Amino acid sequence: MRVNWTDDRLDALSDRMDERFNHVDQRFNHVDQRFEQVDQRFEQVDRRFEQVDQRFDRVEANMRELRGEMNGRFDRLDARFDAMQRTLFLAAAGVVASLIGLIATQL
Questions:
Q1: Could you tell me which of 6, 54, 67, 107 has the fewest CB atoms within 10 Å of its CB?
Q2: What are 68-77's contacts with CB under 8 Å, separation 24+?
Q3: CA–CA separation, 56 and 63 (whole Å)
Q4: In three state form, how does the secondary structure of the chain look?
Q5: How far apart (Å, rounded) are the C-alpha atoms in residues 32 and 38?
Q6: pLDDT tens across 1-26, in order?
């Protein structure tokens, strides 16, 4: 009798353990599904970051183009200032030469 009772108890324990492990397997399946959902969300985030990267590339290209235009305009402005400086210098030299000539003729 003692042997049968122990065998029955071991069988019951085995059945309960199988049932509990089946429950654990179901929980792991649920966790796996959640990880698949998380992976999908990460793929969506990766696609969004790719779009953001493309936008930044366009902004950088626009900034480079704008910088080139501004450098060209500043170069033209510098040339105009140089021309104005030459003109003012020549005008001042002419005034000084005229004053020297006027003084020389008055003496």
A1: 107
A2: none
A3: 10
A4: CHHHHHHHHHHHHHHHHHHHHHHHHHHHHHHHHHHHHHHHHHHHHHHHHHHHHHHHHHHHHHHHHHHHHHHHHHHHHHHHHHHHHHHHHHHHHHHHHHHHHHHHHHC
A5: 10
A6: 455 667 788 888 888 898 888 888 89
Measured between alpha carbons, how far apart are the two ends of the chain, in Å?
A: 153
pLDDT in tens, 40-79: 999 999 999 999 999 999 999 999 999 999 999 999 999 9
pTM, to two decimals: 0.50
d(CA 16, CA 32): 24
- The rounded distance, in Å, linking the Cα atoms of 76 and 81 is 9
Among 79, 100, 81, CA closest to 89: 81
